Amino acid sequence: MPPGGGPRFPGVDVWRWQYFEGVPVPRATVVPVDDPTGWRLYPAHRHLYDKLFICASQGVPAGPHGVPPHRYPVFSKPLMNLHGMGADGYVVRSASEMKVRFTPGHLWMRLLHGRHMSTDVALARGRPVWWRHTVGRRLEGGRFDYWTVMAGRLPALERRLGAWIRRHLYGFTGVVNLETIGGIIIECHLRMAEQWLDLNGSGWLESVVDLYAHGRWWFRDAGRRTGYSVALFGPHGRRYTIEPADVEALRSVAGISSIQITFDEAIPLEQHAMPPGGFRIAIINCWDLRDGLLVRAALRRLFRSMPLRG
């Protein structure tokens, strides 16, 4: 497997290469899969990774640490985070707490409420040609229990996001991912959400490659189905192992699309970007939530762990 996904799909995590291998990419075409690659490829749009800009573009109250909010609670997070996973985010409920938790490089923003959505949009010269919405079931500590990859469209959200895209992604060709809470954009990524791309249907990734190579979109999305992406977390500070044969056996369970073991044993576990609430060790993509939850329970029993030091 090419390190980091290879020159045509740079940034693919080891556990997601299963979706990309065997998909041909024309010479000189690059399909970004992670944010560092999106940053390098699109210098004119780098400001979209600045979360202060994201807030200002929608009129959402926000500011850097050191500039006090007018009212609380607020949410604090890094001004820019190209690793994702909600790293270092937390709620601040008072001025005294803000003083104690002052963090250089962080911003505060209004605490938002509502559904946390992840929306992939395929754009051809700034025009949306394909939408897919995913809603997450949140847990404490920045974690998600599972995501529902919706079959249906969300016209009101698409109108709102489409207006923002026309202003800030004019002429852009490629796939972008927008995260929203209650319809407010909290993050813009100049790449696809690769975690559940196998649930988009056969031929979707090939159409994405053609979009980047030739600026056209031919995927018809026939037979779109609702799918689910179920996460398994363990405690921080432990080393996890599982027998590959056990994982392969569970991949064959009816209703399971794929299983990802979401860490690279070649990289120290403490260097993986993870939310404060836990270390994500697996993801199960499935067509039936009940099947996914059963396989998650089986994986939990099969993993072995020990403290990182000891």
Descriptive notes:
With 310 residues, the protein is an alpha+beta fold. It has helices at residues 35-41, 51-56, 95-100, 155-168, 204-214, 244-251, 289-302; strands at 62-64, 74-78, 90-92, 106-110, 116-124, 127-138, 144-149, 174-181, 184-189, 227-234, 238-241, 256-261, 279-286, 304-307. The strands form 3 sheets. Strands 9-8-5-6-7-10-13-12 form an 8-stranded antiparallel sheet. Strands 1-4-2-3 form a 4-stranded antiparallel sheet. Strands 11-14 form a two-stranded antiparallel sheet. A hairpin with a 2-residue loop joins strand 8 and strand 9. The longest helix has 14 residues, at 155-168. The chain starts with 34 loop residues before the first helix and ends with a strand.
Q: How would you summarize the topology of this molecule?
A:
Layout: H1 35-41, H2 51-56, E1 62-64, E2 74-78, E3 90-92, H3 95-100, E4 106-110, E5 116-124, E6 127-138, E7 144-149, H4 155-168, E8 174-181, E9 184-189, H5 204-214, E10 227-234, E11 238-241, H6 244-251, E12 256-261, E13 279-286, H7 289-302, E14 304-307
Antiparallel strand pairs: 1-4, 2-3, 2-4, 5-6, 5-8, 6-7, 7-10, 8-9, 10-13, 11-14, 12-13
Helix content: 10-25%
In DSSP terms (H or I, runs of 4 or more residues), the helix count works out at 7
Q: Per DSSP, what share of the residues sits in E-state strands of 2 or more residues?
A: 25-35%
Please give the oligomerization state of what you see.
single chain
Which sequence of strands runs across the widest sheet? 9-8-5-6-7-10-13-12
What about the largest sheet? Answer: 8 strands, antiparallel
Low-confidence stretches: none
Q: Termini distance? A: 32 Å
- The tally of strands reads 14
